[in-house]
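User: Could you check the structure of this?
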Amino acid sequence: MPEPTERLEAVVTGRVQGVGFRRYVARWARRLALAGWVRNEPDGSVRLVAEGDRAALDRLTRLLWGGPPTADVEAVQGDRGPTEGEGGFRIDR
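Assistant: Sure, the predicted structure tokens are below.
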């Protein structure tokens, strides 16, 4: 039986802009076969939406806490819900 699919909406705060964080998220999301997007926010945070199986979203959430070596993650706040049909994974500018 396939793993149930979910949607993760998360905001990551700390030193997460200008350090390759969006590329890091996109690379891992694609490796984990997740769909969605990631973007920088005006307040210095990074916002993302990812859809896929629960295990992959759990792994991505753990990876968000690490980030690339130059990042300093202070918090990851996320909510889960039903999927909305995202396709592919993109970096929004």
